[in-house]
Each structure stands twice: as C-alpha cells, then as structure tokens.
Design brief:
This is Sel1 repeat family protein. Helices cover 74% and strands 0% of the residues. By secondary structure, it is an all-alpha fold. It has a domain at 81-168: Tetratricopeptide repeat domain (Serine Threonine Protein Phosphatase 5, Tetratricopeptide repeat). Helix 7 packs across helix 8 (133-145) and helix 9 (153-165) packs across helix 10 (169-181).
Amino acid sequence: MQVKNYPAVALIAVLAGVFLFGCQLQQEKPTSAQIETVGMRAMQQADASAERKLMSWSAQQMPVAQRELALLYQTRPDQRADALKLFEQAARGGDVDAAFQLGEMLRVGVVGVKAAPAAAAPWYAMAAGQRHAKAALVLGMLYKNGDGVARDDAQAAHWLNAASELGNPHAMFLLSNIYQEGRGVAQDTARARHLLEEAAEHEYPPAIQELAMTVQLGDALSPKDERRAGYLLKEAAEHRHNNWNRF
C-alpha cells in the first residue's frame, strides 16, 4: 500500500477545518454558565438578541435554556402559560431548578396559571430528591399543613430534615418544633434545642427570638441567662430590620 504525502499547505487546511468545526460545535452547545449569563442579560437588560439565543437553544431541547427562557416569560403576564410549559420541559429534561420553579408556579398560582398545590407536590419531590433545599422545605411544609397533599407528619419531618441537612435555617426551625412536640418523630427535646441553636446560628430571626425567650426563662437543658437573652433579642431585631430594608 502506498502512503501519500500530503503537501504542508493541504495538511494545514485540514487541521484548520477541524479546528473551525470544533469551534462551531462549542458555539452550538454552550455551557450552563454561558446560558445563564445570556438569560441574565435578557432579563436585566431586555436584550432582544439574548432572548433570541435562549429561544434558539430552547428549540434544541437544552433544559437550562428552557428554564432561563421560562424565567423571562414568567415576568410577562401574557406569556406565563408558556413559562409553565418551558419549566415542565426543562424539569423533564433533568433541570432541578426548573422543577422547583414549576412547583412554585403551580402551588401559588399567577395570572394565567391557576393555583394547584396538588399538582405542585410531585415537582417539588423531584427537585427535593435531587438535594434542592428549598424544594425539600416547601414539600415538608405541604405535608405539615396538608396543603394539596394529605397531612402526614412523618413525611413533613422527613423532608424538613432533608432541607435542614442541606443548610436551610427555616427548615431547622420548623424541625425543632416538630421534635419538641414529637409530631411524626419521637419527641426529643435535646434534638429540638440543637436544631433551634443551629437555626439561630444561621441568623434566622424567628429562631433567634425563640431561643432568646427560652434562655430568658431557662429550661431543663440550660439555666436562666438573661444576659444572653438580651443579646439574642437585639440580634433578632437587627436581622429583622435588615431584612425589611432589603426587601
């Protein structure tokens, strides 16, 4: 077999073609971070070209692009039904944040989308099962309150525990009360106190305030400590004030 020796110019042309083809593929398949950057530009700057990119990528069944486009459409009352569909497509494509956002839209309801807490629960469960802290928190609250699902204290405790382990202080606070009262779990005042302290450590104002009242009176786990109680009440007030100013 005869091996052909290609001229250097031809070889360079072939390599250049391969390089350009590789660049084209990269452009056709942006990273999640790149898509989110374009989504931010479309949202914050009303950039029409950025929106067109999201539409193009969404048509190529890119879940992150579908989610980003849905977030944009969610701000427009006449396109919220489209946002709902895009969130569902993205969630079915494996996007965890889209599953959470879909659950939020269905649970609360917005103009053009009727509230449907029962339909929201499976999407929260999908996101919570993939370690989405807020989804686990809301799912736990749904079971705790019987909102769209049958009230189930054990399920409430399970999902609030999942959110707590992921660092959500609201979940820590709610789970503290659950252990204090023994609803869906064996009553455990020490565990309840630990969770309350942890939620306060995460600067969650209701937890700081409840902890302040607890140490002010004293209990079986710690003696009365008015000095610490005063400090905690001041801290809770400051955090509430900062949150009010922020929002």
